[in-house]
Amino acid sequence: MLTDRYGRKINYLRLAVIDRCNLRCTYCMPGEGLTWLNKKELLNDEEIIRLAGILVELGIRKIRITGGEPFVRKDILHLLKELSGIPGLDELALTTNGILTAPFIPKLKEIGIKSVNLSLDTLDEYRFHQITRRKGLNQVLETLQSLQEHQIKVKINAVVMDGINIDDIFPLVRLTEQKDIDVRFIEEMPFNGTNEPHHSLKWDYLQILNHIKTEFPSISKIADPLHATAYSYQIPGFVGKVGIIAAYTRSFCGSCNRLRITPTGDLRTCLYDNRGTNLKEAIRGNMPVTEIKKLIVEAVQQKAENGWDAERGSAGNKSFHESMANIGG
Hints:
Blueprint: E1 2-3, E2 9-10, E3 12-16, H1 45-57, E4 62-66, H2 76-84, E5 91-96, H3 105-111, E6 115-119, H4 125-132, H5 137-149, E7 153-160, H6 169-178, E8 182-187, H7 205-215, E9 220-221, E10 230-234, E11 241-245, E12 258-261, E13 266-268, E14 277-278, H8 279-284, H9 289-301, H10 307-313, H11 324-327
Parallel strand pairs: 3-4, 3-12, 4-5, 5-6, 6-7, 7-8, 8-11
Antiparallel strand pairs: 1-2, 9-10, 10-11, 12-13, 13-14
């Protein structure tokens, strides 16, 4: 089992398979000017499957496929099927914006995908276009409906942005009245691929919670799953749950069990640490498996205690200037 110097067992990998996305969400990337990676710079299917297998041998039990947008990658279903067959892997999940996803859902069910995180920051068509710089809300809602029909667990991820989608908080909460889904509100993070400074956060965890309480005063705290990033709540009589993720204030770091692999094959131990271990170079250089495992173990041993320490230790402290698409969502 991978264990860091703080005694945390690392068993969850977020694996980004592509940097490209069919949306241009304001909190993730600039409207233009972001250069997509050349295909040769990305890990290919064989490399991804080999690295995933090595990490599972080291103790990873859950892999979440991210991007960019995973369904922009060609032959994504083949990759998912191969990953799902890795001996020792307990769970394969994915995160998607839902634009291209609906036609693939029966196959996802067949492959064994049991949970999907769906990015959805608004239920209003105008604000959807304002946030994503694209159209497509109907496709996302179609994906949501199909996922439920196929009994695939859904978590909606909504980034809370001051002056942009505050009016969407209550309608998103109301989705949990009749639907067995988790709606999770996320503090806005600074990974938007621009040089703009990230000012003090108005809509932090407590502000979001207190705002929800003004409309749903009976909402109450429920138990958080082990290693959860979201603080969990439920409204009496509602089927689904509400979560709030303190992604910027980072109060959940103490129980972190995660690693990330970027689209270019860098292993990162924290979202806020822009230093990485180049596993693509190790794989393409035919490094022995024992040496690759040693690289991974050494990286885990350097994992920061929390996001604030990771940020302070980042190379040049430039992590705020990266796009989430480059890091892996």
